[in-house]
Amino acid sequence: MSGPDVPLRRRPLPQHLDSQVSYRLGVPLIYLKGELDHDSANYARELIKEETAGNPAALVLDLSELSYMDSGGLSLMFELVSQFKDRGWLGVVAPRAGVLRLLEITGLSERQGFRIFPDVQSASMALSSPGSGK
Fold first, then answer.
1. How do the residues of the chain divide into helix, strand and coil, expressed in percent and rounded to 5?
2. What is the pLDDT of residues 20-31, one digit of tens each?
């Protein structure tokens, strides 16, 4: 997930959700693994609040290992898009088919300030391009 010079911080979350945080992209890159539901969304919300306290221009969530999301997770995503709309964007990386479908059918994938990337490298390229909000 990261090179040897990039420290990752692990934070205890509910047993069905794990996270790691990296700043290798210059903005918070948060890896979420497991299930993002009503129970774990509150813990994820606090983690994200802590990691975005410096008001970064973007936030990237790697969802490649997120196996499940319910309305609690979707609510968190909508909140984040609203928070970032005036200063940049929220990006998600490699959501699995079920999670991607939820993002699409709720219209979140079409909202301004929300981006979906196939991999972390694509998110990195978006952050380094002119006008990226970084």
1. 35, 30, 35
2. 999 999 999 999
With a threshold of 0.70, does the pTM exceed it? yes
The residues facing 36 across adjacent strands are 69
- Domain residue extents for the chain: 9-128
Q: How many residues are there in the chain?
A: 134
Q: Which helix (H) or strand (E) holds 74?
A: helix 71-84
Superfamily of domain 9-128: STAS domain (3.30.750.24)
In the sheet with 17-22, reading across from the earlier edge strand, the strands are: 9-11, 17-22, 29-36, 58-69, 89-93, 114-117
> 14 in the Ramachandran plot: left (φ > 0), alpha (ψ -120 to 50) or beta?
beta
Q: How far is CA 75 from CA 9, 14, 18, in A?
A: 25, 18, 19
